[in-house]
Amino acid sequence: MEKAVARAPERRRGEALVRAIHEAALAELAEVGLGQLSMEGIARRASTAKTVLYRRWASPHELLVDAVAQAHPVEVPTATADDLRTDLIAALTVLTDWMPTPAATAVLAIISERHRYPALAEALYTEVFDPRGGTFTSTVLRHYAANGGLDPRRLTPITTQIGEAMVFKLSMDLGRVPTRDELAAIVDEALLPALGFPPG
Amino acid sequence: MEKAVARAPERRRGEALVRAIHEAALAELAEVGLGQLSMEGIARRASTAKTVLYRRWASPHELLVDAVAQAHPVEVPTATADDLRTDLIAALTVLTDWMPTPAATAVLAIISERHRYPALAEALYTEVFDPRGGTFTSTVLRHYAANGGLDPRRLTPITTQIGEAMVFKLSMDLGRVPTRDELAAIVDEALLPALGFPPG
DNA sequence: CCAGTTGGATACGGCTTCGTAGCTTATCGA
DNA sequence: TCGATAAGCTACGAAGCCGTATCCAACTGG
What are the tens digits of pLDDT across the range A66-99? Predict the structure, then answer.
């Protein structure tokens, strides 16, 4: 008989299924972009039926917000080296480790198209997280400012964004995430001088 | 009789038509995004027929590269104030003036989706311009470095990108282009310190 | 072990875009 | 003035996604 080709029914249900759909949504977004995200595409990638998606979510955007919310949270940088330069590089490394993940790709895609889909960006902020305060270098900077390793007056809305800004700009220009050496250069040539430690 | 509703034939031809199509392409891109850009949409917006587009371009992307190439070139910043700070702010103002234009919107959209459409980004670089060298603050910086107003060793791939990086980051975070005061803060708190002029 | 739940497959009409074709007609240039 | 060129219009079948309905089968919990 040879009923042939391994039919593995093993039907997913409940949470396991939802997780698979979330993953598929993020992967689909990364591949086709926000404008092309469709229930049909997500279902296909998750190897399930559209019906299953519509039973839980009304639109691809709604599904997407859920998927981002359920994604693993960002590692939070800590100041452990007792050395500002080392800890800043570590904080930017956390950022560059996060950036290539599906969830980060999704977050960046949503934010960069916020003019086109304002409701989606809004949902990201209200239902997932509020990153307006910044979370990478500023964690480290606040630590050192509180412990006397840094003049608190140097903590401004500008200086706390320099590291992240440079990482994004380099990623844009190079089409890849910065290397460890490039992160060190950002810290040495841009961040530390702005914090009151002259270069050279 | 009343053949009614003002029929204004006034048929566009040649260059005038092409210009209108280019404008329509950039406007359409700004509105619907790169993923949704279609010949149908561009034709609709330009009030012409798809046939006319297909006679000249094989795809929306090809048309788009043409449109960007024909767009008005970016104003080039000059160092005229004999004052580094003032000229840097002026250079960033040129950048923020350019950013809201249709051509700039298109360029940024293409670059930010370069992973999705690598051929398009490549065409942008080879057929339009090569912005990898930077053109805004670096013009000013090179001028001052050559004339002794700035230590040439402070001119690095990092420092020449700080201004632009901060403008982009602020635009991303705020959803709008930075104000003049914010540009001044970027120069005072990030750029000048990195160039060897300590803050405070 | 059985019944209720829910995942999975298929199909539908409606809509939009695709790329091409056939045709009319405004406009240009000789 | 008149012929050539090219813009504009309509239509086409193919394809994809939409949102929904229907049916079947696998899994669950009692």
Answer: 999 988 778 888 888 889 999 999 999 999 999 9
Interface of A with B in 130-159 (CB under 8 A): 132, 151, 153-154, 156-159
Residues of chain A positioned with their CB less than 8 A from the CB of B153: 200
Q: Considering only residues 39 to 78 of chain A, which have any Cβ-Cβ distance to chain B shorter than 8 Å? A: none
- pLDDT, one tens digit per residue, over A108-144 is 999 999 999 999 999 888 877 765 456 789 999 999 9
* Contact across the interface for A186 and B114, Cβ inside 8 Å: no
In B, which residues are within 8 Å of A114 by CB distance? 175
The pTM is what? Answer: 0.90
Find out whether B31 and A35 touch, Cβ atoms under 8 Å: no
